[in-house]
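Example record used in the benchmark description.
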Amino acid sequence: MEFVDERIAMLEREYRRQKREEAKAEEERLHGAEEESIVPEITLEEMLEAVREGSVTLPNGKTHVFETRIYFEDRIPMVLIRNFYTGVKEDTGVAIFVNHDQNASQILTVSDKKLENVSIGKWKKQLVNSMKMSGTYAQVIKEIVLENLDYLIYRTPTGKGWTYNLIFRIRYGSNRVVGNYNCFEKDKDTYGLLLEALVLRLNELLSEPLREAVKGE
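Model output (structure tokens):
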């Protein structure tokens, strides 16, 4: 009887050992699959450098080429994605570019009056409060002051999901031009990053030496 008990105990130990090995093998298999499915990330600086060079290939394999167009009396150099938009409107006071398939957009607007000269902190509060008054929630996640423009990045809910928004005010010329670029938050690490790089490039082009280079485009 003692022999039988020992035999049963040995079989139970072997059974548990096999189960542990199977579980470990399955974990390693899944971990390997996860590593294979991970899309390599691209940094903001890498994205900006790609915009400067004229084209970028996103981690998902899509390649986009850029072009610069000049708008309004202030001759604002707007950097756009070539052959990307499904809806375009260009007028004396507005430039709208929308990709309805990707749910991404770039908009420049000329205000009726000069933008209020307030700090970016106060501007942030004004944005949050105005969205709240209109019944919409806005969470500002980034605020940046550059040489020629300031921008805020904020997220807000919609019926189709959270959106990722960049709003910027251009401190140049008439001080009347504002921009609003956005996409879905789920695309913030690709198209969101790309849109931010386009804003950074716009800021660079507003500097006199670079701006002169695009006047003829």
